[in-house]
Amino acid sequence: MLSYNEVKERRYIVLDGDPYEVLSSHVFRKQQRKPVNQTKLRNLITGSVRAETFHSADKIEMAEIDRGKVKFLFKKPDRQNHITEYWFCAIDDASNRFPIDEKVLGDSVKYMKENSEVDSLLFDDPADKSGEAKKIIGVKMPIKVELKVTDAPPAVKGNTTSGANKQITLETGVVINTPIFINEGDVVRVNTETGEYVERVSQ
Predict the structure, then answer these.
(1) Which residues of the chain have pLDDT under 70?
(2) Per-residue buried b or exposed e for 71-101, using 16+ beta carbons within 10 Å of the residue's own CB
(3) Which pLDDT does position 161 carry in this prediction?
């Protein structure tokens, strides 16, 4: 069990029987009142986000999340060409395929390359009496990944302003801001938690 002030970013807890990832937390005191922890949580089953305030007397159950390896195969768009499903397979059995909804995965998977191996998050639901093995409820990306630039507009002539940026497209289809010297074909390192450019790896 966790105390109210131990519910911090990137920890996993259980509320109402569901596992949640802590997206943000802020411990503070209102005037003469006891301190509270205002948090933002993402449900690892449905992908929905909720705000929750924990008080000093609260005890919060820590979710038992295990990790395994899976391979990302492809993205499946819906009729409006919006990506709604990401398909994976077991590392040792390519025929063992399964989809995970985009809402459950979070934004970091926008930086996931096809055929790449990622950590899967496994949750053993104590309320599930079926006796089934732990189910995959999401994946965890590395904080930084390297991706190839597939489209980058040329820098505007004369624009040498320090800190000037432009939008480029990476091989996964995601668009990010980078310095103007980044070109098509370059490989850049990106922070998957913030979506920000880190550095150019090669050109």
Answers:
(1) 78-81, 83, 125-133, 156-163
(2) bbbebeeeeeeeeeebebbbeeeeeeeeebe
(3) 58
pTM of structure: 0.73
Q: 158 and 132 share a domain? A: no
From the list 90, 128, 83, 87, the residue with the least C-alpha distance to 110 is 83
What confidence score (pLDDT) does residue 182 get? 94
Q: Provide the pLDDT for residue 129.
A: 52
Specify the DSSP element, H or E, that contains 105. Answer: helix 102-105
Whether the CB-CB separation of 11 and 62 falls below 8 Å is answered with yes
Q: Are 69 and 62 within 8 A, CB to CB? A: no
Total structural domains in the chain? 3
Residue 18 sits in which domain range?
Answer: 2-62
Looking at the structure, do residues 53 and 72 belong to the same domain, yes or no?
no
